[in-house]
């Protein structure tokens, strides 16, 4: 369950950063991304998947969230 | 020697690795790579930030070096106690040439060494009492210090001293911030973790000190220079450029930095990060907590300076952008004169770099401005994100290496025979004896500054001075013409 800092890149995409793991990856897709909720399964551009309970209201980025490893 | 092709470079790596036993070879192979612009992510070609192999010579430092030596040490108006045995502090004292203004021993303490000088009894009975006594003593001897940081050396973590409680107690008694830093040398694989720990200490003990204090009058043009260590005056030659373009540099640290500047950093509008590796943690934190955006910049060589100045100006309004253009135009003649003078003497020379932090990628632009080519680069303690940034800067099919061993560095240099090697103090004399010009790029070989337009002139002069030094063809004894004649002379004498 790593602490993940999510911030917006200059290009507008979301960046998924885990300091302890040296992981800095762009987020490819988010399962729930509405005006009310943000979260669910998050897929990164390197193919790995992570999960966070949908948060409502959506967090203001940059924000640190606790993720779980997703299936697959 | 012409530039190597991809296959030749791969072959070179294989040949260098030949001497290792099977297991070590497999491990080291992951740390050597050929640059390929098609690779988006460095982790596909190079492994970094792993424990060094036992039994090989590594050039890395320890967590204490990363915290006391790099991040905390240059904060000039604080006293940094090397808590533990005397050697760690004494042998690293003032080695990094972080310049500062002030009266050493009165209101600044940068080049001094403070240590609790652990003895056997402190290990056996614990050193907390001694630390408390030391802090009280420091206060009576140096009342103008603004704060104290306690930099742990290995034994502190091993014997389980509670430096945090001592720090809290003493901070209350003295009314000054006292920062305990858990940077015991054995933590992590290199000094890189020391940077992280030091950043976390700044986050926990310093950054929030002036939250809610609105007395500081902010302007829309406030910026902070973070991660410039002022080696040989680097930060000063960077700072003037930012000030000339109309920005107000509120804080500049660690180089020539003060505790007040650290505390005021959350009030700025933009954090400018020079050394990404050692200072990205605190910038990310400030972005999250205070909403301060951060960006990396590069002040080595006129091309990169102009690029960075424009990038910085783009974050502000048009008046700043116009002034940035004016700054670039004002220094253009100066840097063109430097290039006109030195480029003919340095054109086409090959450089190999092996340093730490930001230099393996940042100085490439400066060498290219002088017509030189960087054929290999690598970091002592980088992480994947550093290599991600390096791949784009380096030419295709050039060598990338991570945490090189003494043997590998020597062997690769021997085979490539570059015209210049830029690395650290420990490697300097080895390569000079091999007859290869060498610059000690950790602290600019006792020269500098190298940042900014003024620094570029010094950089170019230094490179010329080293490469075109007449000593390099005097390395052979005058009577030794070549190997054959030497053998003949020996035979004739017999």
Task: Please supply descriptive tags for the structure shown above.
heterodimer; A: 72 residues; mainly beta; OB fold (Dihydrolipoamide Acetyltransferase, E2P); B: 494 residues; alpha/beta; Rossmann fold; 3 domains; 6-stranded mixed beta sheet; 21 helices; 13% strand
Question: What does the model show?
Answer:
The complex is a heterodimer of chains A (72) and B (494). Chain A has 72 residues and is mainly beta. Chain A has one domain (3-69): OB fold (Dihydrolipoamide Acetyltransferase, E2P) (Beta Barrel). Chain A is 0% helix and 58% strand. Chain A contains no helices and seven strands. Chain A has strands at 3-8, 14-18, 23-33, 38-44, 49-55, 63-66, 68-69. In chain A, strands 6-1-2-3-4-5-7 form a seven-stranded antiparallel β-sheet, with no helix packed on it. In chain A, a hairpin with a 5-residue loop joins strand 1 and strand 2 (14-18). Chain B is an alpha/beta fold and 494 residues long. Chain B folds into three domains: 1-60 and 343-494, 3-Layer(aba) Sandwich (Rossmann fold); 63-205, 3-Layer(aba) Sandwich (Rossmann fold); 222-326, 3-Layer(aba) Sandwich (Rossmann fold), CATH 3.40.50.1980. In chain B, the strands form three sheets. Chain B has a six-stranded mixed β-sheet with strand order 1-12-11-10-13-14, sandwiched between helices. Chain B is globular and about 80 Å long. The mean pLDDT of chain B is 93. The A-B interface holds A 5, 7, 17, 19, 22-24, 46, 62-64 and B 41, 49, 196, 281, 284, 287-288, 383-385, 388.
């Amino acid at each position: 369950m790593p602490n993940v800092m999510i911030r917006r890149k200059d290009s507008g995409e979301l960046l998924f950063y885990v300091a302890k793991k040296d992981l800095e990856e762009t987020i490819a897709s988010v399962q729930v991304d509405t005006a009310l909720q943000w979260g669910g399964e998050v897929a990164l551009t390197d193919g790995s998947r992570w999960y966070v309970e949908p948060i409502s209201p959506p967090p203001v980025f940059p924000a640190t969230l606790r993720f779980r490893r997703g299936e697959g | 020697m012409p530039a190597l092709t991809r296959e030749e470079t791969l072959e070179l790596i294989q040949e260098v690795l030949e001497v290792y036993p099977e297991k070590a070879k497999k491990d080291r192979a992951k740390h050597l790579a050929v640059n390929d612009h098609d690779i988006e992510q460095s982790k596909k070609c190079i492994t970094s930030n792993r424990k060094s192999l036992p039994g090989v010579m590594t050039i890395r430092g320890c967590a204490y070096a990363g915290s006391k030596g790099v991040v905390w040490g240059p904060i000039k108006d604080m006293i940094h106690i090397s808590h533990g045995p005397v050697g760690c502090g004494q042998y690293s004292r003032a080695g990094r040439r972080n310049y500062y203004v002030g009266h050493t021993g009165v209101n600044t303490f940068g080049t001094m060494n403070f240590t609790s000088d652990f003895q056997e009894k402190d290990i056996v009975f614990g050193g907390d009492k001694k630390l408390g006594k030391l802090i009280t003593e420091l206060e009576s001897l140096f009342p103008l210090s603004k704060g104290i940081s306690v930099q742990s050396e290995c034994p502190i973590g091993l014997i389980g001293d509670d430096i945090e409680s001592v720090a809290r107690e003493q901070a209350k008694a003295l009314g000054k911030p006292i920062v305990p830093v858990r940077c015991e040398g054995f933590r992590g694989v290199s000094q890189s973790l020391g940077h992280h720990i030091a950043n976390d200490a700044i986050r926990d003990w310093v950054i929030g000190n002036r939250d809610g204090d609105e007395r500081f009058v902010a302007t829309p043009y406030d910026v902070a220079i973070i991660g410039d260590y002022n080696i040989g005056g680097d930060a000063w030659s960077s700072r003037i450029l930012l000030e000339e373009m109309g920005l107000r540099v509120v804080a500049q640290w660690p180089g020539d930095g003060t505790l007040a500047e650290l505390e005021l950093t959350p009030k700025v509008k933009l954090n400018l990060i020079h050394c990404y590796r050692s200072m990205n943690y605190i910038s990310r934190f400030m972005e999250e907590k205070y909403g301060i955006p951060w960006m990396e910049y590069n002040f080595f060589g006129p091309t990169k300076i102009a690029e960075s100045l424009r990038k910085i100006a783009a974050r502000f309004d048009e008046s700043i952008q116009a002034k940035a253009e004016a700054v670039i135009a004002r220094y253009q003649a100066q840097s063109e004169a430097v290039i006109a003078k030195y480029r003919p003497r340095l054109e086409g020379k090959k450089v190999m770099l092996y340093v730490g932090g930001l230099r393996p990628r940042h100085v490439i632009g400066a060498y290219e401005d002088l017509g030189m080519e960087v054929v290999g680069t690598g970091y002592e303690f980088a992480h994947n994100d550093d290599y991600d940034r390096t791949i784009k800067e380096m030419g295709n099919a050039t060598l990338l290496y991570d945490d090189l061993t003494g043997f590998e560095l020597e062997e690769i240099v021997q085979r490539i025979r570059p015209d210049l090697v830029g690395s650290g103090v420990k490697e300097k004399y080895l390569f000079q004896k091999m007859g290869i010009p060498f610059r000690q790029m950790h602290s600019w070989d006792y020269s500098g500054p190298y940042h900014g337009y003024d620094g570029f002139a010094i950089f170019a002069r230094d490179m010329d001075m080293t490469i075109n030094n007449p000593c390099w063809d005097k390395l052979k004894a005058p009577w030794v013409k070549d190997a054959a004649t030497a053998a003949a002379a020996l035979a004739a004498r017999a």
